[in-house]
Write a structure and sequence with these properties.
Blueprint: H1 36-58, H2 66-71, H3 78-89, H4 92-105, H5 111-134, H6 141-146, H7 149-182, H8 186-235, H9 238-247, H10 266-281, H11 285-291, H12 297-329, H13 334-337, H14 346-354, H15 361-396, H16 402-426
Helix pairs in contact: 1-8, 1-15, 3-8, 3-12, 3-15, 4-12, 4-15, 5-10, 5-12, 7-8, 7-15, 7-16, 8-12, 8-15, 8-16, 9-12, 15-16
């Protein structure tokens, strides 16, 4: 159990922070907002993502078959596929949530990486060979081969329903959080990111999804690294941050408590996490569809290992942000001080707080958060279209020409944003 003082006077920093004010007798600081420079950086990220989609949609005549559209013709290299797997795992929910969890519960969150490694090894040797050698596009085709068509249809329908619900949350949650902290208009963020994401996914297919994910991985890492560097400078360096974190019980890798009621322990991350991520990487359509897009089974295995490296870099950077945040706010927790209203607002508040005099840098973090949203949403939209075509359209319309089937695939991608955005709007 951890205890924060509502708002004591923090230790002196090289530069004053807004939080360095006692709560008693003073009102909280005014709202922190993004500048035009910040919106410009965010817009540049959206523009580059759109450009990547256009390039892959128009180069070499575009996609001539549904296989080109959904699997890149099964000619993708390992490194971009691996980075794409990493990007879509880290949605904006994780980008905003992992630093906050590390701030509140410590660095034991890094045990997640061991669970991810075990998941990677199991997926590479148990699930990947089956799906790759069968040459499947939809994972639910396996259910028909193993059981019956009825089982396949049940799996397809539940996947589409679950993906619509999840994608809606992925799109809506960061928009709500950033609106509450910065006043960023919810509908503007929903419509702009949704329209651009659907556009490049529809135009460029799987190749666009993968290469925009690669770009967005580096945007995410850049956002985290900027926060870490600035935070370390304000807190007095890495040694001081680690000392403060250790004194505050935030360097806590030794929690081997077997009690299942504990929030986070070694066992919940490694054992529970392995099983959870195995359901995502082993059989989930969005992940399987990308590693079967590799040009060989060996490349697909390498892609899973690249994914592991990418996840380690992203998760460790997010945890480092949480420890830096603790070093800065240990004597004046923004939540208890009333400056924010929920734990998931810690990270955007920190960014606007420490970069008040650095126009454009908060926009980099905004791009970082929405890169997670775009990568997850584009992957989900493409995967929903793939299972719809493979499991529902092809069996009923076997005479469709490759060109028409490709047009149907693109139309389903465009339609896919409607239920997802409807779910977000209902939130």
């Amino acid at each position: 159990m951890f205890c924060f003082r509502a708002c004591g006077r923090p230790q002196p920093f090289p530069q004053p922070l807004r939080i360095a004010q006692p709560r008693d007798g003073h009102s909280p600081p005014g709202p922190l907002t993004f500048s035009l420079w910040d919106y410009g950086v965010f817009g540049l990220m959206l523009l580059v993502s759109t450009g990547i989609g256009l390039f892959h949609g128009l180069s070499k005549g575009g996609q001539k078959t549904s296989e080109d559209f959904f699997t890149g013709g099964r000619r993708m290299a390992a490194v971009p596929v691996g980075l794409s797997l990493s990007a879509s795992f880290m949605s904006a929910i994780q980008v905003l949530g992992v630093p906050a969890e590390a701030y509140r519960y410590g660095s034991k969150f890094l045990w997640m990486c061991l669970g991810q490694l075990l998941n990677t090894l199991l997926t590479a040797h148990l699930f990947l060979p089956v799906f790759y050698r069968l040459g499947l596009t939809s994972t639910y085709e396996y259910l028909e081969r193993r059981f019956s068509r009825r089982v396949r249809l049940c799996g397809t329908v539940q996947y589409i329903a679950a993906t619509v619900l999840y994608t809606g949350i992925v799109i809506y949650a960061p928009a709500l959080i950033l609106n509450q902290v910065t006043g960023l208009d919810i509908w503007a963020s929903l419509l702009s990111t949704g329209a651009i994401c659907t556009f490049y996914t529809t135009i460029g297919g799987m190749k666009a999804v993968i290469w925009t994910d690669v770009f967005q991985v580096f945007v995410m890492l850049s956002g985290f690294i900027a926060v870490i560097i600035r935070g370390l400078l304000l807190a007095g360096g890495p040694a001081r941050v680690l000392a403060i974190a250790a004194n505050g019980s935030r360097v806590n890798f030794g929690d081997f408590n077997p009690d299942p009621r504990s929030r986070y322990t070694f066992w919940s991350f490694v054992l529970g996490g392995t099983l959870l991520w195995l359901s995502m990487y082993g059989v989930n359509q969005a992940q399987v569809q990308r590693y079967v897009a590799c040009r060989s089974e060996r490349e697909a295995r390498i892609a899973l290992l690249v994914n592991q490296v990418g996840l380690f870099c992203i998760v460790s950077s997010a945890v480092a942000c949480g420890l830096v945040m603790f070093a800065l706010y240990k004597d004046c927790d923004p939540l208890l001080a009333g400056y924010i209203s929920a734990p998931d607002q810690y990270m955007p508040y920190l960014v606007l707080d420490i970069f008040q005099t650095s126009p454009g840098v908060p926009g980099l973090f905004l791009a970082c958060a929405y890169s997670g949203t775009l990568s997850t949403a584009s992957t989900s939209i493409n995967a929903m279209a793939a299972v719809t075509v493979e499991d529902l359209v092809k069996p009923r319309m076997p005479a469709l020409s490759p060109r028409r089937l490709t047009l149907v695939s693109k139309g389903l991608c465009e339609w896919g944003r409607v239920p997802a955005h409807g779910r977000a709007a209902l939130s």
